[in-house]
């Protein structure tokens, strides 16, 4: 168990979630999917008055469920290979009215109509990028939005972990591919009772 906790701690990536921007009331949401890969697309649902009603993210080839209030016209921003979101700014009143996404390649995409108090969000450390989004919504719009920043997890190749061809002895297996081999399993056999 201690080995598992040590390995998990060593391989955990630093990340930072900023506070919710906007008034932030209603139902909370957290867009899951960062374990599928980096953000490849952003879909924002904009209402007739220009306020932000909902949001979806695309991780790899998969779009997440939509979060937010019903309705609105979908507008998409697809990222290019190797491109990351490095800043988000916008404005809010009782709702989020405007979102502008800026990427590592200097591209920008704006959604909604700028109105109300301005906000800006950036990664806390160089080399970090947007990992996912959280926020709050009520029946009419998104009322708050937050941004989780960090270093994207590295994709492991199919050869990253390979089982060594030796026969396991006394319940041990050796796994290589991450530095020195280390044993998995029980280091002894349980005594058999008659």
Automatic annotation (TrEMBL):
Q: Which GO terms describe its molecular function?
A: carbohydrate binding
Q: Name one GO cellular component term.
A: extracellular space
Keyword Signal assigned to the entry: answer is: yes
Q: Where does the signal peptide begin and end?
A: 1-17
Would the keyword Lyase be found if you checked this record's keyword annotation? no
**InterPro entries (UniProt xref):** Jacalin-like_lectin_dom (IPR001229), Jacalin-like_lectin_dom_sf (IPR036404), PolyBind_ProtTraffic (IPR052321)
* Alphabetic keyword roster: Lectin, Signal
What residue stretches are annotated with the Jacalin-type lectin domain?
15-151
Q: What is this protein called?
A: Prostatic spermine-binding protein
Species annotation: Heterocephalus glaber (Naked mole rat)
């Amino acid at each position: 168990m201690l080995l598992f906790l040590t390995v998990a701690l060593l391989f955990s990536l630093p990340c930072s979630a900023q506070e919710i921007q906007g008034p932030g009331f209603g139902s909370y949401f957290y867009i899951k999917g960062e374990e599928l890969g980096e953000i490849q697309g952003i879909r924002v649902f904009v209402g007739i008055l220009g306020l932000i009603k909902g949001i979806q993210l695309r991780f790899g080839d998969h779009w997440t469920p939509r979060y937010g209030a019903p309705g609105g016209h979908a507008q998409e921003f697809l990222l290019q290979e190797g491109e990351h979101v490095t800043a988000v700014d916008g404005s809010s009143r009782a709702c989020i009215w405007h979102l502008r996404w800026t990427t590592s390649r200097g591209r920008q995409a704006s959604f909604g109509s700028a109105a109300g108090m301005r906000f800006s969000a950036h990664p806390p450390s160089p080399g970090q990028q947007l990992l996912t989004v959280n926020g709050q919504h009520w029946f009419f719009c998104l009322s708050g939005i937050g941004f989780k920043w960090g270093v994207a997890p590295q994709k492991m190749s199919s050869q990253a972990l390979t089982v060594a061809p030796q026969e396991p002895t006394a319940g041990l297996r050796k796994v290589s591919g991450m530095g020195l081999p280390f044993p998995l399993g029980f280091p002894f056999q349980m005594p058999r009772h008659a």
